[in-house]
Amino acid sequence: MEVLVPFSTDRPKSRLSAVLDAEERDRFARAMLRDVLDAVDAAGGDPRVLATGPLDEDVRCRVTVDDRPLTEAVNAALDARLGGGDRGGDAERVAVVMADLALATPERLRDLFDAGREADLALAPGRGGGTNAFVAGDPRFSVDYHGASYLDHREIAASAGLSVAVVDSYRLATDVDEPGDLAEVLIHAAADADAGRAAAWLADAGFALDTADGRVGVRRE
Amino acid sequence: MEVLVPFSTDRPKSRLSAVLDAEERDRFARAMLRDVLDAVDAAGGDPRVLATGPLDEDVRCRVTVDDRPLTEAVNAALDARLGGGDRGGDAERVAVVMADLALATPERLRDLFDAGREADLALAPGRGGGTNAFVAGDPRFSVDYHGASYLDHREIAASAGLSVAVVDSYRLATDVDEPGDLAEVLIHAAADADAGRAAAWLADAGFALDTADGRVGVRRE
What we know:
Chain A is of the alpha/beta class. Helix content of chain A is 38%, strand content 19%.
């Protein structure tokens, strides 16, 4: 299954600017991207980066450049792959997995891909009602990433009479956007035998878990 | 399987004080508790509330009152049930499920209970490294809810040579503590055919999803 991984090469992860400077955000975003690509590959998916601009490093997979906003770029990619209505139910399935799912594992992506082979649409909701990953197999589905896209995507599917499967996974629900999310990367890296590049990058940059005030956050040494 | 549901009758959900007054927080906390008890029951568990004080309403299950802090009360309950070392591996399993898991479903609790029958310890981590639910079957396990308890609990289990299973579920990872968490209740209630009392209570109290500023939050009418 082809798995598109959208990636912004232009000022990625701006909501981390309180704790990382622009170059650090860029490096951390690329570490997460490579972790996601590895997990997709290990899950049996065929990853392709859908980037807003050229990637200046070797990610060992194909890269498509489309500088349009996320929703437009993903819809164009879905349209190109699912046939825009003229191939119907036999069209191949395509997945879209966000590049900042630093906790994604091959096992849970495999669950998503499996769910997407059974249903017309398989969704992995994110915190705050986002759509962190999905598999679509019907040209009548399109994305709209603004607002609570998980609910909008369910509604788009329902309007088209499509069956929907939901993958309930904390790992897939956790997109790393804000400083508090860095703690999630470190927590689950500490529990994983095989943590990825993003966690290693954070540790190298001096980040550690901080439970001093009773809640779990990060501090930088 | 006996399933303990700890509940604080004394000023529950204080971190919601920016959006709910004390009486509202109490009513909302009880709505979540009853949703959790229903889900435990539907999952085949035998729920028992472990309350810090008498519950002045009928929750249709047994209630044990223990006014000690959470960690001490849960350890005393584990000790009483798992035999404090003198029954060993044949001791029955006991689960502990937090009362504020408003998104918990019978299906995912059943997954947890199943995992807890296979491993010595099954953990459902929460956001921020908490332990939102677990099943323990060995008297060498004890809890420590301070800090990143998910990591501490893994370490306690590892030190005792216990096998650990992790249940990766967004629904079980979502404890409702802060104003932002209310959006999760409304989002998933909107997607569920059979949403619970907590979501209904929020809707009755005038809460609705708000996507005005681009992110998904709640507003109150």
